[in-house]
Amino acid sequence: MTLSRRALLGATGLATLPSGLIVPPAMAQAERVLRYGISMTDIPLTAGQPDRGAGAYQFTGYTIYDPLVAWEMDVADRPGKLVPGLATSWEADPADRRRWTLKLRDGVKFHDGSALDADAVVWNFEKVMNPQAPHFDNRQAAQVRPRLPSLAAWKKLDAMTVELTTKAVDSLFPYQLLWFLVSSPAQYEKLGRSWDRFAAEPSGTGPFRLARLVPRERAELVRNAAYWDPKRIAKVDRLVLVCAPDAVTRSNALLSGQVDLIETPALDMVEQLKGAGNRLTENVTPHVWNYHLSLLEGSPWRDLRLRQAANLAINRDEIVQLLGGLAKPAAGVVDPASPWFGNPSFKVRHAPDEARRLVQAAGFSPRNPVKARFLIATGGSGQMLSMPMNEYVQQAWKEVGIEVEFQPVELEVLYTAWRNGAAHESMRGISANNVAYVTSDPLYALVRFFHSNQVAPTGVNWSHYRDAETDALIDGATRSFEPAEQDRLMARVHERVVDQALLVFVVHDTNPHVLGRNVRGYVQAQHWFQDLTTLS
Asked: What's the pTM value of the predicted model, to 2 decimals?
């Protein structure tokens, strides 16, 4: 079902959810039910590794499942940190820093009643990392393998201990484990070794169980009263995730009482929503909306002058205004408050006259523009308004002599192209893409895009950027187990990224949500990972 704005506009002019998506009153009275209008066109994959990007982890990731290493999600006034998940500890062997020992948590049960142990963890690594494994699932693997670029081997040491080996010394490796979720081998066997059946009846160790799934409409999650962490026992009996990709539809659904909270409201309805007694919440979010530029032979973006001009042509304050003030101008991959920002010499700002001079120096002009074709998303990725923002940037570029044709695709198609890299045959004629992404740690902000050993499809160095000095700085950071030294080296990496204008930096998200008058307890962490167990 597609919930387009045009299709759902009624005679009153208000877009609402179809009646089939509304929780029946009897259910709401019998249980403590909370209905969440989400911006996705479909419920993310429920088999163990969510698809549809980092934001999907709050919906079918950290609800149904748990990671080995978790993220602190109960603080809002500072970035979170790594905390124990299904592993109570993780340690690199001083004699061989490539080998990590993880001690598993005793007494944890999957939803089907089977026990978490080392065999189950190894089985889960096999399902996404070993194509020869009988239970290998390519769909899940496509989501998480790029998020585990350092992992080389895995094995059981004893019933509750596993050893993970990295390809090289990598002090940042625990951050990769945030994205690896553990599902039940016993349930997979029970359901005839079918991942499709497993997706309909999943079994993880998380604070919610999936009770009902209606693709492209809703997922109903019920409280796991036997969850192993008392602090994360869900406050509601049933959490209903309702697909409402149109922002006006979501906002009207909240106004009419069809849902209890929404993400990413319609920007021109924020004041109306607040006036009705709802509460707007947002926070610093490690997320950047930008363009990745191909550096392959034949790409116009091999010319530094054009990369800088593309950055200088954009008035980011006007884009923030377009987004209702719910964003921040980007001066790099990370915010200037980040310890990894450094002090770049190239200052990302609005300077159209300088942009024109750079374009002219490269041999082009508004009358003789450089021409390029970009792959962009029709929607998705946080609260960014993909098409209006792209069209605004397109016009700004045209005024300085850069003429870009857009090829819009659905978000998951764009993610696939991103993982394939600029050299993939499907990218013929494409010289940039518009994937926005999370920047919560050095791996996610910098390493996976700018180290030469992360060139796609190994990692998501889509641009095929290769630079020996950048590699050396990253290698130095990953070999250091001192946080201050890691920060210093990563700041130098970021300086190089900005000074070379490797991306076109536009804005940072603030991940706005609107909570209904009766919703309590929501803690909005500074991450895409959010803890929905706090909602009441």
From this structure: 0.84
